[in-house]
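Regression report. Comparing outputs from two consecutive submissions.

Submission 1:
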Amino acid sequence: MEARPGPCFPGRRRPYSLGVSNLETAPQEIRCAAAAAAGPVVEPLTGHAVALGGPRAMTVTRTLPTRGRRMVGAWCFIDDYGPEAAAMRVPPHPHAGLQTVTWLLSGEVLHRDSLGSLQEVRPGRLNLMTAGRGISHSEESEESAETLLHGVQLWVALPDGDRHVAPHFEHHAGLPVLTEGGAQVTVIMGSLGGATSPARAYTPLLGAEVVISGSAALPVEPGFEHAALLLSGDVEVAGARLERGTLLYLGCGRSDLQVSGQGRFLLLGGEPFEEEIVMWWNFVGRSHDEIAAFRQGWAEGETFGTVRGFDGAPLPAPALPTTRLKPRGRVR
């Protein structure tokens, strides 16, 4: 992508230190262990507050992974932030073994990465970064009292056969929109009702934003497990009312999904992910030694390239835990 001048950020009063990243200074091993339900369920998973980037940073709500369930298809990480008048400033940091998905509802974010990409992310446009064997990026935005920053950051675990692919970046300003009854569905990743996103996916999955005004029956893949995350408004999915800060896990086995109300929610799904993985900091690997090698590569300035144009130092790598990280499957 051709480099161009980015926006200026005058008068930044409070850094909003988050983005498609895990900025915890002492990240714990994330044990991906829960199995997909064999049939349809309605299981609310209460998220937890996570302060990212220090005492002055905004708190996000993390609804995946949770203690009760760790993955929905290949989706392995969900942070919901805002709406709030705040500025985002995330220094360069690494990723490996996953795809990052940025989806905004309001505000703007400037993305830079070690491939040389420079892209403004706006509401309704998909930012997809495939880390593969290693990439680094930064994110920042302007604080504005007129425009609230509100978005969701997600990770998709890459399967073993594709997790060492060359890193690449995609930005999709035009995504397919499906109308079903009182629902307007923007297909972010995967397919729904014959509408297919142009974004590259490495496992069968679905990511969609649903704007509902009334009621609808959404056609879904019965072999996928699904979950719904409320973004705004008052919405019922499969007869259960969605609550902010709670991911509603729906299991497998549905060929249609009943939704109603007035609002907006994120619908996630995918074929159950059967591989054992290790999640730590901003990496998805398969062993302790692999995670340690990723960390060392970042600490020594290798593997992940250089993000140019960001005014500041890269994020330091946190210390590894004192015990060895273990790969975990979806069944305890």
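Submission 2:
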Amino acid sequence: MGLFSFLKNAGAKLFKRKKEEVTVPEEAEKTHEDNLEALRSAVADLGIEVKDFFVDLQGETVIVFGEVNSQSDKEKIVLTLGNVEGIEQVDDRMTVLAPEPEATFYEVKKGDSLSKIAKALYGDAMKYPLIFEANKPMLKDPNLIYPGQVLRIPQL
């Protein structure tokens, strides 16, 4: 897939401190390790099996390696990592065992709802459960989306 861009100032607040607040090198290294652990934990919470999983953080870019079973698993991992406050890009270097068509990504705008997005992209507002299911477990409730969040939009 490659490099994906996200809104740096939107997303889940996983990181304890902003890097600008850290001035002592030892403290910066500990913060970096804490942030990496928070990213690993977010991916683990998805419950997706990833062989040879590795994640690195370089500035505002997350680099992710590993092997997953499906394209949707890969996309969910990219979105989970990218939808974190402070992350601007995800450099996806994962491989997929059973390739399938890629979903498109959609950045939520102010006033959006899943039904409004489904109406615009599928022509039918009642297809919003497809978008909700495609974004589980990242989304816990179809009514809880926010501007700047990036969602998977599966092909029909």
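Expected: both submissions complete independently.
Actual: both completed, but the second showed a warning that disappeared on reload.
Relevant detail on submission 2: The longest helix spans residues 25-44.
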